[in-house]
Specification:
2 domains; single chain; 14 helices; 70% helix
Length: 236
């Protein structure tokens, strides 16, 4: 599909009534056609990878174009400067999360970028940093436990934030790291407990939310099973 064909599709399938529902969830609806995720994924299947088209769609600026751009861009072609530029242009948590999940967590040196962004004072840079950490914890099943120690250190150093968008991403990162295995569950529990001990009010919500999740029976069973599988694999 060409750029013009995509925009024509957006115009033909616009769902303006969706804007009200999106706004209730804190989504920036100032520039959107109101398309649903299945609509965009249908376009993704038709387009596959097209980095040049992704660049044009991102510049278009609409929520729908940027979400599709994240889906079809090539993470191997995305430069660090381009990634910084795209994060700097974020105005809505849903586009941030889509960008991180579909693209940024897959690009070369994603872990280093996540740490850099988490240390940034700008709201969506911080959210992007911790969201990329969460996505790496979910998708990179071969990563050793040691790879996540810098992420936990980043939570301690930069995770106390009053922004609702940031603290939810911090909690999400802790959840996903802690679900990998029992060792990381315990390490991830120690991190929010340290945040609480520091007395910083800004980190309290994320810390309490992570502790509730990581102390739940379902997570304990999951992390224990993952540890057992790893032990069997190492013996096999």
């Amino acid at each position: 599909m060409t750029f013009d064909e995509v925009i024509t599709y957006f115009e033909a399938h616009a769902k303006p009534r969706n804007r009200e529902g999106m706004a209730r969830y804190g989504i920036d609806v100032s520039n959107t056609y109101g398309l649903n995720t299945p609509d965009l994924r249908g376009l993704k299947r038709r387009i596959q990878r097209d980095h040049a088209l992704a660049l044009r769609l991102w510049e278009h600026g609409s929520r729908d174009a940027r979400l599709l751009a994240a889906m079809i861009a090539d993470p191997m072609q995305l430069s660090a400067a381009q990634a910084d530029s795209w994060v700097a242009g974020l105005t809505s948590w849903d586009v941030c999360d889509g960008l991180c999940s579909e693209l940024l967590a897959r690009m070369p040196r994603a872990s280093a970028k996540a740490l850099e962004w988490a240390a940034d004072d700008r709201e969506f840079f911080k959210r992007a940093g911790f969201t990329v950490m969460a996505r790496i914890a979910v998708s990179d099943r071969a990563a050793p436990d040691e790879a996540f120690e810098p992420f936990l250190a980043a939570v301690l150093a930069h995770g106390a934030d009053s922004s609702n968008f940031v603290r939810k991403a911090v909690s999400w990162a802790l959840h996903q790291i802690g679900k990998r295995d029992e060792h990381l569950r315990r390490r991830s529990l120690a991190t929010p407990r340290s945040l609480l001990a520091s007395g910083e009010r800004e980190g309290r919500w994320a810390a309490m939310d992570a502790i509730r999740e990581l102390e739940g029976e379902a997570v304990i069973r999951r992390s224990g099973a993952a540890t057992a599988r790893r032990a069997r694999s190492s013996k096999g």
